[in-house]
Amino acid sequence: VQLLESGGGSVEAGGSLRLSCVLTGLGRGCMGWFRQVTGGKRELVAMIEVDGKETYGMAVTGRATISRDSLVNHLDVQISSLKPEDTSTYYCAARNSYWCNLDQRRWPYWGQGTQVTVSS
Predict the structure, then answer these.
(1) Which of 38, 68, 69, 88 is 20 to 30 Å from 21 at the Cα level?
(2) What's the rounded Cα separation, in Å, for the pair 108 and 112?
(3) Who contacts 57 (Cβ-Cβ below 8 Å, separation ≥6)?
(4) What is the pLDDT along the chain (120 residues), one digit of tens a residue?
(5) What are phi and psi of 73, to 5 degrees?
(6) Residue 25, class by beta-carbon neighbours within 10 Å (0-12 exposed, 13-18 middle, 19+ buried)?
(7) Positive or negative CA dihedral for 48, 52, 53, 58?
(8) Main-chain dihedrals φ then ψ at residue 86, nearest 5 degrees
(9) Chain mean position to CA 27
């Protein structure tokens, strides 16, 4: 199983970015994005079930949109109105279940992460 992320980089505050992830080696299941700053707790950005049910983390609610193409296990998240506090390493993750779970211990597959830096 492999998760390959792309789309990170440096962005100015107020701007937007799109992160993409491609999952290989696993059938359709819940996919999501999480983020973590060094020394901090990993938090949910957004997750989406196979039927399209979306859940967003509190920090990005109203600013993020997650989408997926289940046929090719491709996952995107777009975040707008970026803030310096959105600076983090963003991780794509997957479960081998149609349903998502807020417990991160229930997510067995993780990408290497992509850095996003938002400057003020």
Answers:
(1) 38
(2) 13
(3) 43, 44, 45, 46, 64
(4) 999 999 999 999 999 999 999 999 998 999 999 999 999 999 999 999 999 999 999 999 999 999 999 888 999 999 999 999 999 999 999 999 999 999 999 999 999 999 999 999
(5) 50, 50
(6) exposed
(7) positive
(8) -80, -10
(9) 18
DSSP 8-state symbol, 50: T
Token pair of 5, please?
């992320």
| E strands in 25-84 | 31-36, 43-48, 54-56, 64-69, 74-79
What separation in angstroms does the CA of 24 have from each of 5, 27, 64, 68, 96?
12, 8, 24, 14, 12
Q: Which residues contact 103 (CB under 8 A, 6 or more apart)?
A: none
* Contacts with 83 (C-beta within 8 Å, 6 or more apart), sequence order: 13, 118
